[in-house]
Please model this.
Amino acid sequence: MRINYCENGCMLYYKDYIDLESCKFCQRAHFRKAPSGKKVDVKAMHYLPLIPRLKRLYASNRSAPHMRWHHENRRPPGVMCHPSDGEAWKHFDRKYPEFAAEPRNIRLGLCSDGFTPYSVSAAPYSCWPVYLTPYNLPPEMCMTSPYIFLNCIIPGPLNPKIMIDVYFQPLIDELNQLWIERVETFDVSLKQNFNLWAVLMWTISDFFAYGMLSGWMKTGKLACPYCMENTKSFTLKHGQKNCWFDCHRRFLPMDHEFRNMKNEFRNNTVDRDCPPPIYTREQVWERAQHFPKVTEEQPYKFDGYGVAHNWTKQSIFWELSYWKDHLLRHNLDPMHTEKNYFDNLFNTVMDVNDKTKDNIKARMDLPEYCR
Model:
C-alpha cells in the first residue's frame, strides 16, 4: 500500500486529505510535473496492512494451534519465560476480562529504530522500519523471522524525530478497528469462525526512540521518564554534560548504610531524600492530554520545556482507548542498554583513542564532585 506524504513530513495524504494539492501546514506541493506532463507524487511511504497478516496466522496449520500457547501452557508462580508471565500482561487481563477470556485474541509489540541503508561513507540517510510481533506464540516462535511483521518503512533521508506519529496513522486506524469493531477470522485448527480482537501491549526501542514514541523527550536534565521534574541530575562544570551521578541513593531504604556515606559518592554529601513519586497511569494521561498531537498542529516548544517538563507532544498511541490502562507502555531493548554500557566501560578501561570517557574535562570534573 503506497501512501503519499508531505515533503517535509508534516502530514500524510490519507483519508480525508488524499486529494489535497498541497500540505495543510507548510503548503508544499503534493505533486510535481514530470517531463511528460503527468503529475507525480513528491514523496511516498510503503505501508503493509496488519489485519490480513493476523488473519493468516489462523489460516495456517503451522501457526494456528500455537496461537493459544500462552493460555494453555501455564508456568508455576515465580517462573518467567514469556511476556504472559509478566505483571503487565496479567494486569491487562484483570482490566479487560472479556478480552482475556478468548485466548485467540492477539497481543502485539511494536519495535522501531533508525538505520543507514547505504554504506557508512555515503551521504547520511536515516530510514525507520516499524515491526510488529504477536506474543501469543511460544518463545521459540515468537521472535523468528516469519512472525516479525514489517508494518511500514518511514523513508529518509532525515530522522522523523517527534513527527514519527504522522506515519503511524494507518497503523492506529487498524489497531482501533481490531479493538472496537473486531475482525471475523477463520481458525483452521478448530474449524470455526471467531471475532478477532487485538491489542498493542507496548513499544520496544532504544532510549532516543523512546522519546520519539512516548512524547517525553530524552534530552536534557529531565530525560528520565520516571523521575520527570523530580530528578536530581545536574550539569558537569567542565564537561557541560548532564550527569546522573549519585542520583540513585534516594531509592535505597532509609536506614541503608550507603545513605550516610559522605565521601564514597558525591563529596561531603549524605542522602536523606525519599524516592520520587511514581505517577499513576491516570496522572500521566492527565498531563499528556493537554498537549496537541503533531497530526493536528505543527510542533513547537511548550512553556516550561526543559525546566518543568520534557513533553513535546501528545503521543498518537493515546488514541488507543486502552493505552492509558497499560501498566507498561514503553520498553528499552537490552541490546542498546547493554552494548552502550559495555562500550563505554571497555573503551575507558582500555583507553581506546577517541572513544574513552577519561578525557581532560572528566579529569577536571572529578575533584569537583568526588573526594
